[in-house]
C-alpha cells in the first residue's frame, strides 16, 4: 500500500458527500479505528465509542431520522453544537459554506426542494458503505469532547491515508433519543455525530465543493 505523506493528507482532506458502493472490508475499518485511538487524550481517558450501523438496522434508523426531519420534530441535542445566537462573523462563514455546497450541485437559494433533497442525504449517511454513530458517556466533561474530536480527525486522516474519504455528520445529533431507541443505547450515552466512510465518487458534483479557510492573521497572534 502506498502511504500518502501527512502534509498532503491534511491539505487534501474534504468532506465527501457522495460515495461509490464499493465495500470497505472490516479489517480496514478496524485498522482505521485503531489509528484513530492514537490521538491524544487527557489522562489517556480515550473517550467516545464508534458504532457501525448496518443492514436493516441502518435502513430503519435512516428512515426514522428522515421522518423526524420531514415532520419538523423538535431537535433535542445532547449538547450545544452551534452557538445560539450565531455571531455575525460565524454566520457569514456558515452561509459561505452553504453557498459552496449548493453552488457545486447547481441548487439555487430559492430551490427549497433541491436543498431539502441534499440535506436529507445526511440521514442516509450519504449512502456510504460505512455508517458510524459516534457517542460519548455523559458527565465526562467538556474537555473529553475535545479529545474525541482529535480522535475523529485522526480517523478521517487515517481514511485518507488508505485512499478512502469521509464526512462527519453533525445532523445526526439532532434527535439523540430516537437514535438511542433504535440502537438500544442507554440514556447515559450521548450522541455526538455520525460519520460516513468509503470511496469517493469522482464524478459527483457535490464532491467538488470547496470551502475557504480563514487566513492565518484572523486566528493567530503573538504576544510579548
TrEMBL record:
GO terms for molecular function: oxidoreductase activity. The keyword Oxidoreductase applies. Residues 10-199 form the Nitroreductase domain. Keywords: Flavoprotein, FMN, Oxidoreductase. Gene3D superfamilies: NADH Oxidase. The keyword Magnesium does not apply. CDD domains: PnbA_NfnB-like (cd02136). This is Nitroreductase. Signal peptide: none annotated.
